[in-house]
Amino acid sequence: MEDAEMNIRGRRYQKKYSLPILFILIFICLYWNSVQSKESLFLKEGKKIHPKIESFLSDLQEKHVLEGRVLSKSFAQRHNIKMDEQDRVVVFLYPEAGKSKDSINIETLKAYGCEIIKSGDAVIKSKVPISLLDVIADQVEGVSFIKLPDRPLADVVSEGVSLTGATTYHSAGYAGENVKVAIIDLGFAGLSATISGGELPTSVIKLDCTGTDCAPTDFPSEEEAHGTAVAEIVHDMAPSAQLYLMKVGDRLDLKNAKDYCIANGIKVINHSVGWFNSNFYDGACYFDNSVCMANHAYQNGILWVNAAGNAAKNHFEATYTDADGDGLHDVTSDSNYITINASAGDLFVAHLTWDAWPVTNQDYDLLLYNSSKVLVAAGMNWQTGTQTPTESIGYIVPASGVYYLAVKKYNATSNHRFQIFTFYHDLNPYVASSSLASPADATGVMTVAAIDWANWTTGPQEYYSSQGPTTDGRIKPEVSGPDKNSSYTYGGIFPGTSAAAPHVAGAAALILSSQPTLTVSQLWEVITSSAIDMGAIGQDNIYGYGRLNLPAFYPGITVFPTSVDFSDVIIGYGVEGTVTIQNSGNANLVIGTITSPSSPFEIIGDDCSGKTLPFGTECTLTIRFSPILAGLFNSSINIPSNDPQRNPVLSYLSGIGIHEIMLSSPMDQASFDACSLYAPPTFKWSPKESFNSYSVQFSEDPTFSTIRVKIRVSGKTTEKTMSSSQWKRILRIPGDQGGAVYWRVVGTQAVGRSAISDSHSIMISAPQPVGNPILSPTSRMGLPNLMWQNNCNIKFKAWFGSTADFSEKKALSFHLSNPDLDGGTFSRELTTSQWKAIRRLVNDLTDSTIYWCVESQDPLKRPAITELMYFILTD
Amino acid sequence: MLGIEFPGLSGNLLKVLIFFIILIFLTFCVNNQQLSLFKMEARGQIKPPFELRKLESVLYEFLMATDRENFAKTHRIFFREGRVRVYIVIDPNISPTEKESVVKTYRIEIEKESENLLRVTVPVDGLASLAEEKFILSVRLPDKPMVQ
Questions:
Q1: What is the span of the domain harbouring residue A582?
Q2: Report field, pTM of the whole predicted structure over 0.90
Q3: CATH number of B41-140
Q4: Is the dihedral of CA B75, B80, B83, B87 positive or negative?
Q5: ipTM
Q6: Every domain of chain B and the residues it spans
Q7: Which of B 56-95 lie inside 8 A of A, CB atoms?
Q8: Which of A494, A825, A839, B82 maximizes the CB count within 10 A of its CB?
Q9: In this complex, do A374 and B7 lie within 8 Å of one another by their Cβ atoms?
Q10: A318-346: per-residue pLDDT in tens?
């Protein structure tokens, strides 16, 4: 009974609940189907292809669904698609072929949140929610296709072109000709449209460096249009520059791109990209980071222009402190948190690094909390000694609201200075100072800040424009460029330092086209020195040297070489050299009359005086150096021109006149005395070419009007050691009192041509009397010793007299074979008879005065005599 | 069988219903990465275990994720056909033979390299053991530069 009742009740319940349950199951199945269909559209296929929606719009819807409104709005802006506050975009809705707009169900459109703007016979212009694009395409009756409104092909030129002075260059015919500029960026979406719209030339060279190397590409599946918009500005600034569009994704791609630029003669690189956590933002090169790349490019003559970044409010910096000991950095005295406001669907990205590069065991972590202070994401790498001091967070925000960032000291022995950067979300508090990413911190990078073009002459800088100094204290940026300029690629304005940088890169191309010989350092100097100062005087950490201002035109004279050294030139011969004058400025160079240098230099060819040189052209002077005398000669050429900075320019000339035969030994004015007769010198010379024979000539006349001695030498040798007899004849040339003797060498060749060397002098010493003559002792009882220095004499006569006039005298004669024997000293004890004969002159009386002197004669038979001397005869 | 009976529902229908509910719940969990993050936080295990100290923490999260495809998409990780793209820094003193052995052992495909920094793809299931390899100094994601 009960069973039957239960069965009846069960059937009743079955009837009562079966239907709702079935509905629930059907709903679940439908939901499941819907989820699966979305996944198949967005996830599995990777790219949604809806037959009724233009691909750009499909991409946008996909981004909106997957990455949230911030990223999709940015994506939209970069593709000339404007999103309103309700995440709607303006589109054209087309009816089916042959039908009018009335076939589209307007009421359904409105029910989906669409706003009709206007309509034609067969098209409706409407705002539609991005997230419902596919639903509208599928569900709204009569809709056959949804596409973006037509884009008129207006000629969009950046406002920065005229503001920076580029227009003046264009008018003067300088548009970046022969200058290669690379735009190294993260993507080049929309390139075909931009080219077909006339905003970029078809000649752009497209390279994808994300593969194993940089390879030609057409960028078939790009999402990021940033590079295209950047290139558009460079082209606006320098329309004739050859652009290289190079896509990179990471540092190794960047290395490939940089190497390509060096190998292919690229002179300017624009890189409107920031790299994070690759150093402590102090310009240090680690692990092939972007700083290494930029500095290497600069070392290879490339100007690397980089956006400063837009992180003035996305940057926080402090030294870790934890007064309350809770393990988290004290952002303020009562808070551990940096606040962020984020919307649901936003991608939140944050990077933390601290001053412990390149690898560290000092371990900090980066934490992200939601509004309930629940940890929702973290960068918690280990730092145990082999890892970099970095942490990162990437987080899809699930719900709009306030989020909190915190820095935790996990394991560190000291408190480090740290920096945090976020990509899309302002920080509170933030630190605008030192908010440069890499490689804007590199020494070899020209870093560019941004000023709204509408405030170009007054400032301020954009509130987001990153500021210096670098973490190691260098002032940055270098210069400011305009942003928020009109952009064809973006279909509106292009904000950010990304837009400011290509104005500078384009300006660099213009300067190089007008002054092709500039080196990278000169180009850097031209850009920074011509900037109009803003903010603090001189370079500052906000504007750099000021706002970009292309320099006025002026002629520039370059003379090379600046000095001409003709080196050694044989007397009687001439050598030519050239001096080139080049116009390295960007206006005509007018050269005045060039004055001739002093003899023995002369201008023998003048292609320059009075000439007007257009920029980049040159003329030459030919100069001849023809010495007729030996010796060093200096002069200069005075080159006047209309160069306002360098006028006149001097080119210095120098040269040495030399003989064909150069005397080398003895040195000029070497001195010889009579003793040299016992070791005659060797005469040496150096011929510039070979001779059959030489004649060594000696004369007392420097002009060699009479040649007193002539000694022939075979051409096989270039030296002659004099024999005693030859040398004796030479020593006697100046006479008994000595003096200068001049010598030279005359070489004779087989054909009879002869060459004369320069001349040297040798100084022949006059004969010297004996030195320090001594007679001692002078007592009557002993025998005295007679001593003196020979002084190159060989014959001596010692005279003794009773009076000073030697009225009564006695002479003692001596003779030496070589005056140098015994150290050149004469010493002889008088004999008893000799001494007696001397004493007899004074009758051998004690205390008598005896006068004496020594007469001598050298080997040249030249006489000399000492002064009068005397001694007292003692007991 | 379950000890619970719903009046008006046959046993088979009930089983189907429970199966669907479990399926939906699992799908929800798989598709909601934030949930898994919260769970990890609850376990306090975001920091990789010490033996995986050379592995970047986001890669550890990636390994732990129940839906790696989705995690990779939301974290901009290159993940295709079971391989993940990473930077590995190898010991500069490694010999060519040892390097070749490491490459072979972990089925590493080298895309680019500069000195001891290599951009590679590796099978995701070998990522953890690769991080424990003595010649590997660190395993991390490649740079993610940002347009300015």
A1: 557-658
A2: no
A3: 3.30.70
A4: negative
A5: 0.73
A6: 41-140
A7: 56-58, 69-70, 73-76, 87, 89
A8: A494
A9: no
A10: 999 999 999 999 999 999 999 999 998 88
